[in-house]
Automatic annotation (TrEMBL):
It catalyses: (R)-pantoate + beta-alanine + ATP = (R)-pantothenate + AMP + diphosphate + H(+). Pfam families: Pantoate_ligase. This is Pantothenate synthetase. The active site is at 38 (proton donor). Catalyzes the condensation of pantoate with beta-alanine in an ATP-dependent reaction via a pantoyl-adenylate intermediate. Belongs to the pantothenate synthetase family. One of its GO terms (cellular component) is cytosol. It comes from the Bacteria. It comes from Desulfurispira natronophila.
Length: 286
């Protein structure tokens, strides 16, 4: 495995791959502090490409002024060991000034209701930062495929929209959520949970399953279902619900009133110091 520190090295190393159509490159963009969720993306990427490039970059432009950019977990040495063991070919770990040159003033932004709801409403400017950096990474690495996790369900939809809208020649591959044994979605930020917060964090997945169970029993009223989840979280002093919404899985249009068809249930909950997200496809036909 080779570590690439800047754009110049990247061109030198990936140049030979760009020349040969059969030498496919897969890109796995991350912000580091790797866990098994990230490694599932690497495994899928390894199985579908001649070479895997894992990027590790805590992208400052997707963090709001009061968010956790400074405290975001970082440990490059640990990440490199894990990436090497997982069969990554190249780790691209640039510094912010190499990605955002002085005077940087160009943004890629999906302007759509899709980016104004859910995390877009709670984190203004977040998706503009994500799409800008993902477009840059794809442009730099020139992969045939790029891999993203369904844990960040809205991010995936927004990236698909961007790729379609500006004709980026890359296939976006989505990978299922990897969970801890109690159902908590793996996330780098879980590291900041103490033991009682960690226990409370299992309520996220439990509440998604509870909704599916209530739907199986015939409940269809989305307001009543949302209220059940709010009640579910109110038992914990550690949890503060940000949003709970049913959405069209493709457009992310929010669903009100009775559920008419399968819907994505998405939630964001602050657990102690950490804002966690999760989602689940609610199926009506059980
Ligand atoms: N549990 C998971 N299962 C599948 N994919 C995941 C999981 N966690 C993260 N990913 C995916 O890995 C990629 C990089 O994510 P990122 O580096 O932000 O990690 P993260 O664990 O989501 O961190 P955060 O604490 O910021 O939520 C994204 O495409 C994300 O969706
Ligand atoms: C896609 C991404 C690497 C862009 O910084 C980030 O949003 C993430 O890790 O999900
Ligand atoms: N995985 C999403 C990155 C973020 O929360 O900024």
């Amino acid at each position: 495995m080779q570590v690439i520190h800047n754009k110049k090295e990247l061109c030198n190393v990936l140049g030979p791959f760009w020349q040969k159509a059969s030498h496919t490159i897969g890109l796995v963009p991350t912000m580091g502090y790797l866990h098994t969720g990230h490694l599932s993306l690497v495994e899928r990427c390894n199985s579908e490409n001649a070479c895997t490039v894992l990027s590790i970059f805590v992208n400052p432009t997707q963090f709001g002024p009061d968010e956790d950019l400074e405290t975001y977990p970082r440990d490059l040495e640990r990440d490199l060991d894990m990436a090497c063991d997982a069969g990554v070919d190249y780790v691209f770990a640039p510094q912010a000034p190499d990605i955002y040159l002085p005077g940087h003033s160009t943004w890629i932004e999906v302007v759509s209701p899709m980016t104004n709801v859910l995390c877009g409403a709670s984190r203004p400017g977040h998706f503009r930062g994500v799409t800008t950096v993902v477009a840059k990474l794809i442009h730099l690495v020139q992969p045939q495929r790029a891999y993203f996790g369904e844990k960040d369900f809205q991010q995936l939809a927004v990236i698909r929209q961007m790729v379609r809208d500006i004709n980026i020649p890359v296939e976006i591959v989505s990978c299922p959520i990897v969970r801890e044994p109690d159902g908590l979605a793996m996330s780098s930020r879980n590291k900041h949970l103490d033991s009682s917060q960690r226990e409370a964090a299992s309520l996220l997945y439990q509440s998604l399953l509870l909704v599916q169970e209530l739907v199986n029993q015939g409940q269809r009223d989305s307001d009543a279902l949302r209220q059940r989840i709010i009640d579910h979280f109110s038992i914990s002093p550690h949890c503060e619900v940000d949003y709970i919404e049913f959405a069209n899985p493709q457009t992310l249009e929010l669903q009100q009133g009775p559920l008419q068809s399968d819907a994505q249930l998405l939630l964001a909950v602050k657990v102690g110091p950490v804002r966690l997200i999760d989602n689940y496809r609610i199926i009506l036909t059980h």
